[in-house]
Backbone:
């Protein structure tokens, strides 16, 4: 998130237009974005949401893009997406951390 936007949101809080809790929720929501794999990879063994593409032959002959879950090991994607292996012909484009687990009220 651009630093200038972060500063504007903080000013709204200081001026009384936002509570600190509202400010924190907005900043947290804005920080969740897709991170291109060219920018950086997640930590080893950290399960993350991935956006990937793959080509399907046969009747389809089409490039598909979709999301799933995966992790990195030793600087490389694990080869497992959604708990299944055999995804040799896919290309992971971007990723983002998983949200915090649900906690009941």
Residues:
């Amino acid at each position: 998130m651009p630093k200038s936007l972060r500063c504007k949101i903080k000013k709204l809080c200081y001026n009384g237009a936002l509570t600190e809790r509202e400010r924190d929720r907005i900043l947290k929501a804005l920080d969740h974005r897709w991170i291109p794999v060219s920018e950086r990879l997640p930590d080893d063994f950290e399960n993350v949401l991935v956006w990937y593409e793959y080509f399907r032959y046969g009747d389809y002959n089409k490039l598909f893009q979709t999301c799933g879950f995966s992790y990195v090991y030793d600087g490389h994607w694990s080869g497992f997406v959604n708990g299944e292996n055999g995804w040799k012909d896919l290309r992971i484009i971007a990723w983002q951390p998983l949200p915090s687990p649900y906690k009941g009220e």
Remarks:
- Residues 1-31 form one domain.
- The longest strand covers residues 48-56.
